[in-house]
Amino acid sequence: MIEPSDVVAALEAAGFTHLVWIPDSSLGTWDRSLSQSRLAPLRVTREGEAIGLAAGLILGGARPLVAIQCTGFFEAGDAVRNVVHDLHLPLKLIIGVRSWHAGQKGQSRDNCPHFAEKLVQAWELPATRFDPVGATAAELTAALTGLATKPDSGAILWAE
Amino acid sequence: MMTHRQALEVLARQRRDQVVITTMGSAGIWPHLSDSPRDFHYLPSSMGQAVPLGLGLCLARPGLPVVVLVGDGGLLMNLGCLITAAQFTVPLSILLIDNGLYEVTGGQPVANAGRTDFATIARGAGITRVYSCDTAEAWAAVAAEVLTGPGPVFAWLKVRGELGKATPSPPRPMAEQIARLRAALGLGEPPA
Asked: What is the pLDDT of residue B188?
């Protein structure tokens, strides 16, 4: 099981300089650990705004990671399209997939897992899945380092 | 009331080493007034994202002054960006070009055109340095002050709506603009 301190350590090890985010009930558990890290968590009001802010950070030489829930990713579609496919900036995201675990157990009919997969494909955003339940800190560090070092945009679909 | 071009002419006279980010209507005028590597014409764009883009530049390069020219239609799509910007002390000047119209789509009025008090909205978001100007003379009188000192700063520039203009296009392809801007900031290719 990944702890919030593991996430922050992995983000730092991967070389991210800023975390642009809107917390949900899963990503939000990182808040306390983030406040004690050298990462600069940047709080925004809407997910599309997170994408624009990340674009400016990348233009200025920083290495941001955007962490948002899939519902916000759905809202942010045009901003993602613009940054990834017009500006061709290497946008990196963690997209929290709401109800993924409950759906796997047949306990939820939430359509978020279905559309999260569809939407990252629609925006031609290479994505990998990561399930923090049962994963090790080393696996998380490898996943985030892989995301950080790839030359193009990419996302991790974070099972919630 | 001043014209859009008059508003930008004042900016051109007072601009020093700031990065200037333009959107839509301003991107059609600013290239006639400036050709600096620190000009960034955010076209093609995602409407409403120019202020976050400028804020990101400020946060990545502490001390770098950035001016964002945003239209009322664009700002209305992302009013929350004022609240986000107000969290930081950064040399970001947000110049709202308010003509009350969606100019490039044929001049349809924006929601609540002419009744929205953008200065009150900016103050309510937590931005303390807020200016309102509806003539070129008033804008010229405060422009130097707007463009210096701690920010974010918000200047509401009320301009005359003008129809029949061509849809603007940037003077250079986006890839060239990015390379030019990053070189001017002493940076190389965008990081992986």
From this structure: 76
